[in-house]
Write a structure and sequence with these properties.
Helix content is 56%, strand content 14%. With 189 residues, it is α/β, with parallel strands linked by helices. The longest helix has 15 residues. Monomer.
Length: 189
């Protein structure tokens, strides 16, 4: 299996680039954000449990997130690989993902970090918020999500760098140019 983590702050373009990578490499996209939003809209017990956390811009506890992600991987036993988007967000989650994939005879091939500065992120999310009205894109919650990324989530990168799995790609520019750079990284594997 060819498994990648697409890493970056809210608004970095992970969703857009994930879709392009899926189309090109026939990988399965697992976005914890999309999974949470689906559970919330379907009002599942999990959705009810995490709704208030997400609406407040907080991270969902590791145990819930990991269990949900493992369930999603198990639903796709014939997958060529996965793109993990929005996960892992902590070193503990990264270690749990490694352990889970190892139990399946697999691993993370690479981690690709989309580099985007805070000014560009704020601009992109303000535009996205106009189009989608996502509750977690409202200004107060957005700032919490960006702060959470730069204060906590960013610390996952050294974990993968120590494993020699980290590549950084400039996330500012034309979507197709960024995608071409991502493909250069993926093609190495």
């Amino acid at each position: 299996m060819l498994n990648f983590v697409l890493f970056g702050p809210p608004g970095a373009g992970k969703g857009t680039q994930s879709q392009k990578l899926i189309d090109r490499y026939q990988l399965i996209h697992i976005s914890t954000g999309d999974l949470f939003r689906a559970h919330i809209s379907n009002q599942t017990p999990l959705g009810q449990q995490v709704s208030a956390l997400i609406a407040d811009g907080q991270l969902v506890p590791d145990g819930i997130t990991i269990a949900m992600l493992e369930e999603e991987v198990d639903r796709n036993p014939d997958a060529k690989g996965f793109i993990f988007d929005g996960f892992p967000r902590t070193v503990a989650q990264a270690a749990a993902l490694d352990e889970f994939l190892e139990s399946k005879g697999s691993s993370i091939a690479g981690v690709i970090a989309l580099d985007v500065d805070q000014g560009e992120l704020t601009k992109r999310i303000a535009e996205r918020q106009k189009q989608t009205n996502r509750v977690d894109d409202h200004a107060d919650k957005l700032q919490k999500r960006i702060d959470e990324y730069f204060s906590k989530t960013i610390h996952v990168l050294p974990y993968y760098e120590a494993q020699h799995k980290l590549s950084k790609v400039n996330g500012i520019g034309k979507i197709d140019d960024i995608f071409a750079e991502l493909c250069e990284v993926v093609d190495k594997y």
